[in-house]
Design a protein that fits this description.
A hairpin with a 5-residue loop joins strand 18 and strand 19. The strands form twelve sheets. Strands 10-8-9-6-5-13 form a six-stranded mixed sheet. It has 36 helices and 38 strands. It binds one RNA strand through helix 15, helix 23, helix 25, helix 28 and helix 31.
Length: about 1050
RNA sequence: GGGCGAUUAGCUCAGUCGGUUAGAGCGCUUCUCUGAUAAGGAAGAGGUCCCAGGUUCGAGUCCUGGAUCGCCCA
């Protein structure tokens, strides 16, 4: 071992910088790949982030989990490529550029020029690339950033086109007219998974409007009023009809303050009209009776004829409920999915008086040009003025907003391109069955549920910066989907250098069917289709590297935050199922959210964002990583706390480092004294614990459970530090080779176990211990040494430690400090327990500072037994008879039973006239201490202390006080631990007498080569109120 | 309104197949140990296991309903 001095107060952030430097010098990441070349692959897919924002704490979380399993699998012998990736397209990028340019509409973008705009998008995508790269390296995420795939590259886009062509060839790409969530600010429709990203709680108006009936008919008379509820007053201007449930019971009723009879669902009368409104029900009838009733619309801007025959009439529908509202539902064909379907059924015309920018068009008179959501208040006032309003309230509900710009979405009937994923629902579900989700409940819960309710993928976006939709169309309406750049060149004679808009827009060709010129449709595609195509697009498959793609599909492992259920997890699965009919990943780890210390969501506006660099600079990347890995199961989310990170450093990393420092402190002596000493029980014990730990960590990591794997390492390090080293110190002072070898082996193995978790400190320790490879990350994962495992020994040690714990507790109760030796400890234990304690008697004696252990089998002299039933064994046997059994056991004589069990006999009890035999496992014997003894018990096992202190013991106790005082003096004098001294003592006569009587002990403990008693005055310590003068001089 | 998850000590979290006295760490108080450690050990204080029913000889654990929080959907 090289005698590298280990700084016990090492700064971890500084250490990590040194390790990073060494990794660079030795090219460790690449070397770790080279060494596994040709081995079986274990495939990781990087879900591409967008580098146009700074990385935050949640990115660190994702990145360290993306790192740990690839590192582990590499050590297990797999070849684990880690190709980086960047998501480059989409609205977020466009919005950032719009902000730079100070513009905010599509018209302004087009005025600015699509070419120039897209050029700026291209530049903006990688604004924070350096930040991302720096952070990625600094937190030890090994990722190939030099060969990262980028969704804006022509090769990538060509693969995406290929995928769309495949989907089109299967007849699954279509243009449809549907009501879609639409962002009027961004001017584009959103897919359902984008929709999922933007729900917010908002307060909207909730109004009850009166629609006067215009003709007598059925149960109603002209002048009766239909009561209609809506939370979107802005859609009332294009009210087309009113929907009712044909089965539901409605009433025509008169309520106190209202002049006219009103119509609404019977179940909602009191809720709508008020409980004390003096209601008189004039008539009851099913909703079907209202079919065809004509009414006067709330606003007259659009005539009934605009909608066709059934305009402004009551229609029968299947989506009306009596849960809220009035049971009569306002229907505006263009602004709701249910409305749209109903309109189709009754052949109503789609009338949409709202422009694409979300303002009313000229048909809506005074409101023309106003943003619809802003008109709510005035429309309500207008209704009120005209006596059409029954009541206006506010209503809090969650409503979808644009996930990037925050504008409330409008539901809008629009033409859009779709992929018919819903026809593949069974295949999606089947693919999902093959995936191991972590946590497991995602599979049939959140994600499975989502697949079950799958709707067609709204693919097109009426935007600029994205993969162009490769669909060309002629005037006859024929369409052609282009699947490669070669094909486009063949058709058009144009070879595109950059396939983005606007260049691609200029390319046309004759229609293969009718020879008319085909032009590309204007849309680009959903960015989620880009990232979901990465399994093949990152390789430019199938145009190139097809065999590489096939060898790397599907992925063994992906990891992203939970919100990707509707994002990347879905788009990957959907595209893979569409193209290859199989899942693109085998194991998924879903990460939860990071909240701040108060449980609040982190947001820029609250100013509670955690800046990763602050944590790294203060505690280090390993500390950050360790926190994420071990604080809790990652999918449960985190309440981020700097204190918790600090605690991890103090209690784990520092403890580990200190153990390593301890080894280095004495290793120089070890070389000199090599060969001395055979392995002890303690050596065998810690090696057994090590083997158990290796097995457990391996098992947990195989199960993608980093949390319990890490905690198992921590438990081992605690045993190593607080029991093995603590109990073995004297052997290290003596330079016993077996002790050094054991500790070194343990730390070396720990460094390997920790390599995936805390790659920096693991490598520093490995290097410091003289590990054979240039880095721990080039090592093989340790094998659990089955021959080292000795479970009996581990159990025995646990009993011995328990005995120590009880003895110390008895000490604490008796107020006799441990420094004062006592004559004996009486240990009550029999059988296995007794043998275990006897085997480790020296340890127990030493820890308790007693001269001897005396064993007694029976506790009669120390206390009486208490006998209890063991429900765990007896419960299943006796079931409902348990109360009687427990009573019968309570009636037994405990001393008798104790004696019988000691002799291995069974005990008989009679329950309900039947005799039963009870064995030792069925009964628990506990000791009940008698007065006057200091006794601690645990089950049948107890420790009592003989508290008598005679002259000799008293002298030894004082000698030990003297030693402690001298040690303090040594430290104060700045001596090194191995320095020999000349010791001079003076002061209180009794202290000096005690020291003299135990001089060999005092000298040995303090490394004094000579002891003099001539009253030196160098330092003075106080022991039990007496002065001790101490002089230490290096000998 | 529906789905999924969570709720255990002041804080952060364990708690296996249902077993009768629910644990750990941190923090606090007192004591103690110390040739590595900002460490270790002992004691004390600190609990309505979210609530209410139910199943069972027995429920933190299983079932039903509800509350609160988070996420997702409508």
């Amino acid at each position: 071992m090289p005698p590298t001095p280990v700084d016990p107060a090492q700064s971890f952030p500084e250490l990590e910088e040194q390790v990073l430097e060494r990794w660079r010098e030795r090219d460790v990441f690449q070397e770790s790949l080279r060494r596994r070349a040709g081995r079986p692959q274990w495939v990781f897919y990087e879900g591409p982030p967008t580098a146009n924002g700074r990385p935050g704490a949640h990115h660190v979380l994702a990145r360290v989990f993306k790192d740990i399993y690839p590192r582990y699998k590499t050590m297990r012998g797999y070849y684990v490529e880690r190709k980086g990736g960047w998501d480059c397209h989409g609205l977020p990028v466009e919005i950032a550029v719009e902000q730079q340019l100070g513009i905010s509409s599509k018209a302004e973008i087009e005025a600015y020029g699509i070419e120039a705009f897209n050029q700026r998008c291209r530049e903006s995508v990688f604004t924070f690339l350096e930040d991302w790269n720096r952070l990625t390296e600094r937190i030890g995420f090994w990722l190939d950033l030099d060969h990262a795939y980028r969704t804006l590259d022509p090769d990538y886009i060509e693969s995406v086109w290929w995928a769309l062509r495949q989907i089109s060839d299967k007849g699954l790409l279509y243009e449809g007219h549907k009501v879609v969530p639409y962002c009027p600010r961004c001017g584009t429709a959103l897919s359902s998974h984008e929709l999922a990203l933007g729900y917010r709680d908002v307060v909207d108006p909730s109004i009850y409007v009166r629609f006067p009936v215009t003709q007598d008919g059925g149960p109603l008379q002209a002048g009766d009023e239909l009561l209609v509820w809506t939370t979107t007053p802005w859609t009332l201007v294009s009210n087309a009809a009113v929907a009712v449930d044909p089965e539901l019971t409605y009433v025509r009723a008169k309520a106190g303050p209202l002049e006219r009879p009103v119509v609404l669902a019977e179940a909602l009368v009191e809720r709508v009209l008020g409980e004390d409104a003096d209601i008189v029900v004039l008539d009851r009838f099913p909703g079907a009776a209202l079919d065809g009733v004509r009414y006067e619309p709330p606003f007259g801007y659009l005539p009934a004829s605009a909608y066709g025959e059934r305009g402004h009439t009551v229609l029968l529908a299947d989506f009306v409920t009596a849960e809220d509202g009035t049971g009569l539902v306002h229907t505006a064909i263009a602004f709701g999915e249910d409305d749209f379907r109903l309109g189709q059924r009754y052949h109503l015309e789609v009338v949409n008086p709202v422009r694409l920018d979300g303002t009313y068009d000229e048909r809506i008179g005074p409101y023309a040009g106003r943003f619809v959501k802003d008109a709510d208040r005035d429309l309500i006032a207008d209704l009120e003025r005209r006596g059409r309003l029954l009541r206006a309230e506010e209503y809090e509900h969650s409503y979808p907003h644009c996930w990037r710009c925050g504008t409330p979405l409008l539901y809008y009937a629009k033409p859009s391109w779709y992929i018919a994923t819903s026809t593949l629902r069974d295949r999606l579900l089947a693919a999902n069955e093959t995936v191991a989700w972590h946590p497991e409940h995602i599979k049939h819960g959140r994600f499975g549920d989502w697949l079950l309710n799958n709707v067609d993928w709204a693919l097109s976006r009426e935007r600029y910066w994205g993969t162009p939709l490769p669909v060309w169309r002629c005037e006859e309406g024929h369409t052609h989907v282009v699947g490669s750049f070669d094909e486009l060149e063949e058709l058009s004679g144009v070879r595109l250098e950059d396939p983005h808009r606007p260049y691609v827009d200029a390319v046309g060709f004759p229609c293969p069917q009718c020879n008319l010129r085909m032009e590309r449709v204007p849309e680009v595609i959903d960015v989620w289709f880009d990232s979901g195509s990465m399994p093949f697009a990152q390789e430019h498959a199938p145009f190139e590297h097809e065999e590489r793609f096939e060898a790397r599909f599907p992925a063994d492992y992906i990891c992203e935050a939970l919100d990707q259920t509707r994002g990347w997890f879905y788009s990957l699965l959907a595209i893979s199922t569409l193209l290859f009919d199989q899942a693109p990943y085998r194991n998924v780890v879903c990460l939860g959210l990071i909240l701040d210390g108060e449980g609040q969501k982190m947001s820029k506006s609250k100013g509670n964002i955690v800046v990763p660099w602050d944590v790294i600079d203060r505690y280090g990347a390993d500390a950050f990583r360790w926190y994420f890995f071990t604080a809790k199961q990652p999918w449960d989310g985190y309440r981020f706390s700097e204190e918790a990170i600090g605690e991890g450093v103090r209690l784990f990393l520092r403890q580990l480092w200190s153990t390593y420092h301890f080894l280095s402190l004495y290793s120089a002596d070890a070389d000199a004294a090599a060969g001395a000493g055979a392995p002890t029980e303690l050596d065998r014990w810690i090696r057994s614990r090590l083997a158990a730990t290796v097995a457990e960590v391996t098992e947990r990591l195989d199960a993608y459970d980093a949390t319990f794997a890490g905690r198992a390492v921590a438990a081992f390090v605690d045993d190593l530090s607080n029991w093995y080293v603590r109990r073995s110190r004297a052997r290290f002072w003596a330079g016993e080779a077996a002790a050094f070898a054991t500790l070194r082996d343990c730390l070396l193995t720990v460094s390997k176990l920790l390599a995936p978790f805390t790659p920096f400190v693991a490598d520093a320790i490995y290097e410091g211990l003289g590990g054979p490879e240039p880095s721990v990350h080039l090592e093989d994962w340790p094998e659990a040494d089955a021959t080292a495992r000795d479970e009996a020994l581990e159990a025995d040690m646990a009993v011995a430690r328990e005995t120590v714990r009880m003895g110390l507790s008895a000490r604490g109760q008796s107020k006799v400090k441990v420094r004062q030796p006592l004559r004996e400890a009486v240990v009550v234990a029999a059988g296995r327990e007794r043998r275990a304690i006897e085997a480790h008697a020296d340890v127990v004696r030493d820890e308790l500072n007693v001269k001897a252990l005396r064993f007694v089998d029976r506790a009669d002299e120390l206390g009486s037994y208490e006998l209890k039933a063991n429900y765990r064994t007896l419960g299943p046997r006796f079931g409902p008879q348990m109360p009687q059994v427990a009573a019968a056991i309570a009636a037994l004589d405990p001393a008798h039973v104790a004696a019988a069990l000691r002799e291995g006999r069974h005990v008989g009890v009679n329950v309900d006239g039947h005799d039963h035999e009870l064995g030792p496992d069925d009964l628990t014997l506990a000791l009940q201490p008698l007065d006057g003894y200091q006794l601690e018990r645990e089950g049948s096992h107890a420790v009592a202390l003989d508290l008598a202190v005679d002259e000799e013991l008293r002298g030894e106790g004082l000698a030990r006080e003297v030693v402690r005082a001298v040690q303090n003096a040594r430290k104060a004098a700045g001596l090194a631990v191995e320095d020999r001294i000349a010791l001079t003592l003076g002061g209180d006569a009794e202290l000096l007498a005690a020291a003299r009587a135990n001089e060999a002990y005092v000298a040995g403990e303090t490394l004094a080569v000579a002891v003099a008693y001539d009253g030196a005055q160098a330092q003075t310590a106080s022991i039990e109120g007496r002065d001790l003068h101490i002089g230490v001089a290096r000998a």
